[in-house]
Amino acid sequence: MSNRFELPAAIRPHSGASLDTKLVLGCMVLLALSLALALGLITILGSDYARASRNLEALTLYRKVLTAANRLSAERGPMNSVLGEESAADGPAARKLAEFRTVSDQALAEITPDDGDEITRRLVDRDKLDNVRASLAAARRAADQLSARPLAERDTTEIRSVITGMFDVVETMRPVVTGAMAELIEHDRTLAGHALAGQMLGDLREYAGRMGSFLAPSIAARQPLSATAYDELILTHGRVLQIWQSLEHQLALHADAPELVAAVGEARIRYFRDGLDLIARLSAEGKTGHYSVTTEQMTLQYVPTMAPLERLRDGFLDDMLAHARATRANSVHWLQLVVAFTVLIVLTNLLLLVLARRRIFRPLLQARNHIVALAEERNLDQPTRVSRHGGEIHELFAALESLRLKLRERLRLTERLKVQAETDALTGLLNRRTFDRLGQDDSGFADLPVETGLILMDIDRFKLINDTYGHIAGDQVLRATAGLVVEMVRKNDLVMRYGGEEFAIVLPSTSLRTLARIAETLRAAIAEQAIALDDGTEVLVTASFGVATGRRDGPGWKTLIEAADQALYMAKAEGRNRVGVAGEHRLAGQVVADRVRAA
């Protein structure tokens, strides 16, 4: 099939009406099309600006909704302190609780729908917000009634019931948050990731606070932790870790925000180390009921460890709003740029119409001839003579020269793409597709002997490496292992990534004994070589090997792979970190495998 293409009739040489006249008309049409395109772009960019402005307003309100939910959650801290000490209306704990309640009420007032605010009415459901206020009022009344009684008359069940009431307030607030997030995403689906991450950061703070609240009743009553409370602690602890694990990938996308990166690091130390250690210690004390702190002391120690979680949430939301502001500013910039460009197009086209007959049409005819030659792949080795005219015409001839060079380089590029198609992106080794071609009578391997040896190698317990250190560390182990294997095999041997943590080494014209020796050498080297991860951790890995010899033509290739695979299976079954060698005898198509022990 020819690579040439048929030229449109409009640029084929022909006789007829005046070409100059047609080109003048063409310039006028181009002017009209340019104006239409520019007006279309202005319309699109104007719409983008309006959407960016609405997004900024919606995200700002969504942040206020998340903040209100957090304020309701944070109110439990001082409430726990009040429930754990004797009633004192003017005491420090009572004053702090009053302050927190005022902040909560202000946060709810800021998200109350206003008839004149379309964004608030769309994102916040008034009925759901009224339910939150009713639930909050009931929970506060119950807390005030219980705290008014002497401490000795408050039992664990009553304290837990009041705390559960505050839990219910947060759960009543959740539909408000979810509804606001759904409306936000419905308006612009590109905001889904930010909206969900913001909600998860709020949930992280909420569940972290709940763990302290689960301990508060037992500490206040100086009683052992109930089995139910202990189970709730364990379950909530798991939720906290699960949310954090989900958030880490999303937060990693904001590496360009130093404040956010710092907040992530602080949260890891202050909460996920210090805060959870405190919870673990108090949970252990809860088995006997002998607590080393009061509820107020626990609050004073535990709440500060959650402060980094709040700063992390605020930092993320600040970054989210900063991106929204940048998007709106960018829309304004492009809108102004397109308007200026439209004016420039009009002036440029008018000037072109004046100068066209003298400075444009003749060079265009020359350019057409060059295009025809390039389309027919003629004169590719002859440089295109760049027009002496300046401006766009000069650039046109320069572009034609660039096109000629590109066409000449096409074959080289095709070969490069072929190499990329045959290479594994992670390890740089040949990939499974190339491995399969070895047994398909591919002309690319015509010079490779038919008789060949095969080593299949599998990194032992690789899933444990991924589970322990993470998939990024697993990729480092794969690359390091691949590099070690490539260094140790012969130059004419083919090292390929067979799949996952499995590698294949094809050794042409190699005896079974030599294969076993090479595999044993590789096994020992891998076992002895510590692999350093990016964080400085050193990992020791082992690998199991299966070796076999055979032919790579016809059915021999499949038989060879099965033999090596069976030998690898035997090595794995016998304890890993060893070499399995396919035997010379087969019964009913099954390969008998022996083991080569380490020297």
From TrEMBL:
CDD domains: GGDEF
PROSITE patterns in the record: GGDEF, HAMP
InterPro entries, alphabetized: Diguanylate_Cyclase (IPR050469), GGDEF_dom (IPR000160), HAMP_dom (IPR003660), Nucleotide_cyclase (IPR029787), Rev_trsase/Diguanyl_cyclase (IPR043128)
Catalysis performed (reactions): 2 GTP = 3',3'-c-di-GMP + 2 diphosphate
Enzyme Commission number: 2.7.7.65
Domain GGDEF span(s) in chain numbering: 450-584
Top-level taxon of origin: Bacteria
Coiled coil: none
GO MF terms, alphabetically ordered: diguanylate cyclase activity
Keywords, sorted A to Z: Membrane, Nucleotidyltransferase, Transferase, Transmembrane, Transmembrane helix
Name this protein carries in UniProt: diguanylate cyclase
Organism: Bosea eneae
Species lineage: Bacteria, Pseudomonadati, Pseudomonadota, Alphaproteobacteria, Hyphomicrobiales
